[in-house]
Amino acid sequence: MIARDTLIGGVLAATDKLVRQAEQGDWASVAKTAQQRRAILEALANHAAPAGEHDFLKALRAAVAESDRALGVMGGGAQDPSARQDGLCTKA
Asked: Minimal CA–CA distance to 10: which of 45, 47, 36?
C-alpha cells in the first residue's frame, strides 16, 4: 500500500501538472491527468484516515471537484463527465 503522504503529494503534484497543461491549452492531457488525480484521491480515501482527518479528506475532495468543474468550463467540457462532483468524503 502506498503511504498517505505520498498520495497527498501525488494529488498536489497532479494539480500542479493540470495547471501547466491548462495554461498550454493541452486539453487532452488535462483530461488524462485529471483522471489520474481522481484515482490518486480515491486511493487516499481508501486509506484508514487518522482520527480528525475526515475533514481534511472532505476538503481535498471538494477542492479537486471544484478544480475539475473549472477545468471543464475552461476546456469546453473536456473533462470526464463521470467525475464525482459532489465533494463528499466516502469514508465515515
From this structure: 36
